[in-house]
Amino acid sequence: MKSTLREDIADQLKSSNLNFQTLDLEGLDLSDMDLTGADFRFSNLSYVNFSRSILKNANLSFAKIDHANFEGADVKGVNLQNASTEGVSWSVGQQKDTKVVTDKVQNLTQKLSSLTHLLYHTGWFGTVISVFIGAFMFYGVSAVIYFTNQILNAYEPTLGLFYQYIVANNIVGGILTVVATNWMSGFLEKNVKSITTQHLLLSFVIGVGYLFLTTFSFLSFGQEIIAETLKKYPSQSTSNAPWYVYVLCPIFVANVFHYFQKQGKQLTRKISEQELQLSELEKLKTRAELEALQARINPHFLYNSLNSIASLVHFDPDRAEQMTLLLSKLFRYVTNKTSDYFDTLANELEMAATYLEIEQVRFGDRLSFRILVSDEVLKQAQVPRFLIQPVVENAIKHGIAKMPERGAIEIKAAKKGRLLQITIHDNGTPFPEPVGVGYGLQSIQEKLRLLYGEEASVLLQNTPSKEVVITLPLMNK
Q1: What pTM, to 2 d.p., does this model score?
Q2: Rounded to an integer, what distance in angstroms lies between the CA atom of residue 81 and that of residue 18?
Q3: Ramachandran sector of residue 16 (left: φ over 0; alpha: ψ -120 to 50; beta: rest)
């Protein structure tokens, strides 16, 4: 039977007939189907498998989709107004996209330095680079140790002074080379497009600069030191390398620094872009989850209310009119198209009061309620939309409706330090033990978690009285 229904739906899709209103499709497998724009209003979709299906702009308003599976589905633009969504699996497409971007950011972070990437490269090229850098570093450290030892333990003052001159010249040259390269890299990146031209200009400037530095230091104080050393140790003149070999050292260092600096900037830019994309996807994901968790008026409440109106029309038209107006007022709030997830406490309490007035028409003298706010200023506090009404509905459905005697509901709002505490008390059937967050209120807790993190909480308790206590940060618009 279910297979036949799936085939019928597939046939309707082929004929572009996307009207599936008021159908009983409970438990049907609609996975991997293109249901773009499909109309499932007032249908029973409990336990339906929509995994990996395309549901863009589909209309599921007033539908019963309890325990349906939307894992991997594309639900962009889906209308869930007044849908019953208890136990729905919402691992939708945005989460997959977020995971992909997260993986990209992690991979890029692991490659923050191309040098590090090369060092850990498992091929022959990585091995050659690693050997070269290791040997170069070992040689450089050995030279530092050698010259430091010569300076500290020179048996002749002239030689010690000569070694000091060489070390000081190299230290100053290295510092100025790195500083100049850092400054020039930014300038070259902005003004020179060709990478080869960038390296050639950098090599020229660093080479000329190094020659100027060595010439200046030689004429200022090095000439006398070198002359004195050569006078005492003539063999030093024949053991030196040509001048241009020494110029290659700062040119090599400058080009290596420029290359890796450029690579680092590109990777940082990519990471920033990916992090921005991840942030946007996280916002979309949170928004999708909030919309899925946004409490809607239960379709059964609408059916019961309409039946009550129908029965009152004949023997009590005034009450039927009153209930119709209340129902209109309630649904005006529910169908408000605002994208804001917050509203004033006053509006939330008014919505809860309207809901309870409708239920009073149904229950008559069996239901009474009152709303208490400790401070009028609190009525302007910002609270999540559809926060109180689902708790009140839960109290009537699971508590008061099951008792023969008179039921009473009391809603209190008070300030507790920097927190707003909303308490919904009823004298109905106690919560089943052990009392914990649950009992149909998981969606409220999940909504608070998405909006406030760990700063908000939902507590169910039977003692000293049966009540639901919602605590959240006190915010004003």
Answers
A1: 0.46
A2: 19
A3: left
